[in-house]
Amino acid sequence: MQHQHKRGRGPRPNYRPEGWRRPAHNVPVNIADHGAYFTAHVYAVGFAKADIKVIVSDDTLYIHGVRTPAEEPPDFLLQEFPVRHFERSFQLSEHADKTAITAEVDAHGVLVITVPKLASAQAKDIEVEVR
Amino acid sequence: MPSTYETTTDLAPPPALTSFHAAFTPELLAFAMGRGATREDAEDMVQQVWTAFAKTSESQAIGAPRAWLYLALRNGITDGYRRRATQPLIIPLETNGFGESRTEIRLELGATAFHRLGSSSQEIDVAAGDLDATEFWSRVDAALAELPRLQAETFRRNVIVGESLLVIAASHGVPVRTAISRKRYARERLEGLLGDLYEDYFGEQ
User: Fold this and answer.
1) Is the CB of A41 inside 8 Å of chain B's CB atoms?
2) Contacts from B24-32 at CB under 8 Å and sequence distance 24+?
3) Does the interface ipTM go beyond 0.95?
4) A110 in Cβ contact with A43 (< 8 Å)
5) Largest Cα–Cα distance in chain B?
6) Do A23 and B99 touch (CB under 8 A)?
7) pTM score
8) Among A60, A87, A117, whose Cβ lies nearest the Cβ of B89?
9) Sequence-ordered alpha helix ranges (H) in B60-115
């Protein structure tokens, strides 16, 4: 491609957010390992349970939420959480039991997804009987 | 989901590779699918192989193109198996820990700055006079035009227009995983294709 380069043409507008993130569309997620299973806490506060979809598509976990604000959102001076929709996606390993994944919204509005590990992936000692 | 190889346009090669592409793509797809790949995965892998082939052929002559293509594809399949066997139980598919890649963020910033989203609430104050929306979008559109059609469309609709991958996947008749994969491939290509644009408009690569 031929481009006319504009380097050195003076100051650029300061509209780059800190930290390279897009909070208008994404929500933070905590993932924890509990041995036999792991959990993903999705901070989807403000999104109703009925408006959240959790989809397991082959080896991919996809989470999507939408909402229609009662009023048109203002011109934000700072926006650090989404008000219209979000989506996150994760790749699940072959050791995740994809058929036993569950999801619920807790009392604080946090979406909790539980993914059991297959027995083969659980690190545990096996005692062999001595006869 | 397409039942036949109807995505020929999605795998459209550079003009110089057209004859190779037409001759070898069906058998490469069959090779990948014969080793357990879904059709969508096979199309993605074959697309990556063609991209690598085009890039390599720019700098060196490839004496045995068919063998080269098969070797690259087989290596890609093997890498995929190895990666799946050793990866953590769950990993985010976005390229940073909290959301999306620089490419996506910067294009959304561009969309916002140049009011392409069409919503007054998305507008921000752009004080500098040297931003040229027409040039910005012509360069973005030119980069997108170099991508396979469905990859470009998926990326554009998700990142620039703001549609969810779920909606895009449904409109294409594919699983959401395929839409995610197409977006990821597009993002990887755009990081290279738009490097100059990012430097010009955002001050860094």
Assistant:
1) no
2) B24/B65, B24/B66, B24/B69, B25/B50, B28/B69, B28/B70, B28/B73, B29/B5, B31/B70, B31/B73, B31/B74, B32/B73, B32/B77
3) no
4) yes
5) 56
6) yes
7) 0.67
8) A117
9) 65-86, 102-113
